[in-house]
Design a protein that fits this description.
- 2 copies of one chain form a homodimer.
- In chain A, 35% of the residues lie in helices and 11% in strands.
- The first copy, chain A, is α/β, with parallel strands linked by helices.
- Chain A has a single domain, classed as HUPs (Rossmann fold), CATH 3.40.50.
- A 5-stranded parallel sheet of chain A has the order 3-2-1-4-5, sandwiched between helices.
- In chain A, helix 2 links the parallel strand 2 and strand 3.
- In chain A, helix 1 packs across helix 6 and helix 6 packs across helix 7.
- The longest helix of chain A has 16 residues.
Chain lengths: 229, 229
């Protein structure tokens, strides 16, 4: 029996490989997991359909989607149709970086955690593979934890939700291993920035490359459905 | 000539009295003001129409609205139709508190500031009249400033936007005085939680009372259009 048994948690669920693993980890820790997906005008809407499948297969207590049209402020290849998603690796902060995306996601999750009186918020940020993203670093997670302590009623009362980022220091291969050990069906997940309406991956974008390399490094057969060449 | 002349700033603009004053203060400080309104499923949609009028009258360089359906997570009388807005003052954190609202607003503003390379984000939070709201306190503003320094590309590069909350320690009467001195037309603004589709105020809710008391204390004639009794 886990001490956290039946305590509610909010789990940010994108429909990708990472957050599917996070959901499995939160469930294994005994939380009642309320999955939260954010529709932020991203091109890969197939991810949101995948999120619903992953929530159901992963035993989430509930799943809901909040929409925020970040495309209205522009600035990213993922939300702005005028900026192309590159098919070759780039240096520095990639054009697929969505300004303040994880801040917006965690802010909405914080509101939901307040409504649920949740003990934790789980988020799949990863500092290893996404080192070019400012909001995937330990300093970001720490600063958001500090904010959560003062931003909400629960925080003022001394029981702010803990920000849990269990993938923070894991490689993609490590994440695949954890997911496999916990029974995650990665065939249900979509990571590709350019997935087709059926959720099939392009095989060429940064997200596809990271994912395929992860399966290869983990020695696990890649279950990803790809668009036929 | 102000040192900040022509520097872009994001100004969170609700269409109410406070944020109209903040826009005037940001303009007076020499910023090119990009007004940002958030449609979060609040009942008083009349505020958003007011925001467009206030942005135009206040000389904003641009005005845009981002929608985020916080009603999907519930928890507040302002977004949840099952919770009544009280017409009498209440103790503690009021039911009109929207969980993590200012965190969500500032998160979206932070993304927009990153796109504009803005020097500042102006927000009309006030610790005097809204002492029951956790996210209207100086500690909240400080924690968000700390987050802004690590959450974005600009922050990593050492030029995070400053979080400017110029109303933080002002009474409603002080705010009215500042606005009048800067030429704000408060007749364009809507503060009421129950405003009718024409933007006319109910005269009874907490927001109406605070506002009317502010005009009275400032010795300024109340220009608010009220619903006929």
């Amino acid at each position: 029996m886990n001490a956290a048994a039946s305590k509610p948690a909010v789990v940010l669920l994108s429909g990708g490989l990472d957050s599917a693993t996070v959901l499995a980890m939160a469930r294994a820790a005994g939380y009642a997991c309320h999955a939260l997906s954010i529709d932020y005008g991203q091109r890969h809407g197939a991810e949101l359909a995948a999120a619903a499948r992953v929530a159901a297969a992963g035993g989430a207590a509930s799943h809901r989607t909040v929409s925020v049209n970040l495309d209205a402020i522009g600035g990213s290849a993922l939300t702005d149709s005028l900026i192309a998603v590159p098919s070759a690796p780039s240096a520095g902060i990639p054009v697929t970086y969505v300004p303040a995306r994880n801040t917006v996601f965690l802010a909405i999750a914080l509101g939901y955690a307040e409504v649920l009186d949740a003990a934790a918020i789980f988020v799949g940020v990863n500092a290893v593979d996404y080192s070019g993203y400012p909001d995937c670093r330990p300093a970001f997670v720490d600063a958001f934890q500090a904010l959560a302590r003062v931003a909400t009623k629960a925080g003022v009362e001394g029981h702010a939700p803990r920000i849990e980022a269990p993938l923070l220091h894991l490689s993609k291969a490590d994440i695949v291993h954890r997911g496999v050990a916990l029974g995650v069906d990665f065939g249900l997940t979509v990571s590709c920035y350019n997935a087709d309406p059926l959720g099939r991956a392009c095989g060429h974008c940064d997200a596809c490359r990271l994912r395929a390399d992860g399966f290869a490094a983990a020695g696990v057969a890649d279950p990803t459905p790809y668009v036929p060449a």
